[in-house]
Q: What sequence folds into this?
C-alpha cells in the first residue's frame, strides 16, 4: 500500500468510527445524543420553522429518517474507502463480472456487505479482507436492529408527554374557575402527585430521548409547551391550601416542574432565570408563528 492508500484507509476508518460514536451516544449512552444526530435534528427543526409552520409536525420524523440515512451513508462510505486500495487484486470475481477498481465498485461491495445480502459474485481473497467484510456484515445487522429499537423507543416517550398534556387540559376543563379548592383535599392531592410523577417521567424521557424534544404537536390538547404553565398555576395554588397533604403534593409538583425546567435550560438551551421564564420560552419556541389566529382541529 502506498501513501494515498493509507490516507484512504484512515479516512474510511474515521468515518466508521464517527458513525459508531454517534450511534453509541444516541442509542446506548444515557442522557446523550451523538453530534451527527443532534446537528440534523436541530437543523431540520429550525428549517421547518423558517419555511412554514405546517411543516413542523413532520420535521422530527423526517430528521430521524435523515439521521438513519446519515449513519448508513457514513458506514457505506467508510467501509468502501477501506476496500478501495485492495481493488481489484484483493478480491475474486465470478465469471462474467468485470474487474474494476474504482469507487463505484467499492461502494457496491460495501453496500452488499452492510446489507448482509452477499450475492457472492465479488468475494475477498485475503483472509484479513474476509474478516473485514464479515465484520461489516455484523455491524450492518446491528445498525438495522438499533434503528428499529430507536423508533420503537421514541414514540412511547412521545405518548407519555402527550398524555400528560391531555390530562392537564382535562383537569383544567373539569375544575373550571373554582380551582382545586373545590375538590376534596385527599383527592386533589392524589391527582397532583400523579401529575408530579408524569412530569418527572417526561423529564427523564427528554434526557434519554433527546429527539423527542423536536416533535411538534399539531393539536394544542396534546402540546405540553402550551399546557405546562397551567401545571405551574395548579402547583402554586395547592401550596397555598391549609390541608398538609395538598400542600405537600403542591411542593412535589413544583419540584418536578423545576427539574423539567432545568432539563430544558441545560439540555436544549432555553433561556430564563426562573422556571416560569423557561416555560414561556419553551412555549414560544414550539408555538406556531405563521398562523397565530388558526384554531386546532
A:
Amino acid at each position: 500500500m502506498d501513501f494515498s492508500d493509507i490516507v484512504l484507509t484512515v479516512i474510511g476508518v474515521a468515518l466508521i468510527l464517527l458513525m459508531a460514536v454517534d450511534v453509541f451516544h444516541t442509542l446506548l449512552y444515557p442522557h446523550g445524543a451523538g453530534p451527527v444526530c443532534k446537528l440534523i435534528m436541530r437543523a431540520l427543526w429550525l428549517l421547518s420553522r423558517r419555511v412554514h409552520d405546517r411543516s413542523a409536525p413532520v420535521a422530527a420524523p423526517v430528521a430521524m429518517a435523515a439521521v438513519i440515512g446519515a449513519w448508513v451513508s457514513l458506514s457505506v462510505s467508510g467501509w468502501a474507502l477501506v476496500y478501495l486500495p485492495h481493488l481489484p487484486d484483493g478480491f475474486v470475481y465470478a465469471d462474467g463480472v468485470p474487474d474494476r477498481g474504482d469507487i463505484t465498485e467499492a461502494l457496491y461491495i460495501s453496500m452488499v456487505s452492510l446489507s448482509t445480502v452477499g450475492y457472492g459474485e465479488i468475494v475477498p481473497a485475503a483472509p484479513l479482507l474476509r474478516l473485514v467484510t464479515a465484520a461489516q456484515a455484523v455491524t450492518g445487522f446491528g445498525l438495522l436492529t438499533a434503528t428499529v429499537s430507536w423508533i420503537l423507543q421514541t414514540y412511547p416517550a412521545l405518548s407519555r408527554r402527550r398524555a400528560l398534556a391531555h390530562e392537564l387540559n382535562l383537569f383544567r376543563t373539569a375544575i373550571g374557575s373554582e380551582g382545586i379548592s373545590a375538590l376534596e383535599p385527599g383527592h386533589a392531592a392524589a391527582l397532583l402527585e400523579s401529575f408530579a410523577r408524569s412530569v418527572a417521567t417526561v423529564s427523564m424521557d427528554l434526557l434519554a430521548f433527546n429527539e423527542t424534544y423536536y416533535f411538534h404537536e399539531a393539536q394544542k390538547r396534546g402540546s405540553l409547551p402550551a399546557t405546562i404553565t397551567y401545571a405551574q398555576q395548579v402547583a402554586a395554588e395547592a401550596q397555598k391550601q391549609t390541608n398538609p397533604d395538598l400542600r405537600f403534593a403542591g411542593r412535589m409538583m413544583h419540584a418536578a416542574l423545576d427539574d423539567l425546567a432545568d432539563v430544558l435550560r441545560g439540555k436544549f438551551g432555553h433561556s430564563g432565570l426562573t422556571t416560569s421564564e423557561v416555560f414561556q420560552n419553551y412555549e414560544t419556541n414550539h408555538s406556531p408563528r405563521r398562523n397565530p389566529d388558526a384554531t386546532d382541529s
In short: The first helix runs from residue 3 to 28. Strands lie at 91-93, 122-124. The mean pLDDT is 88.
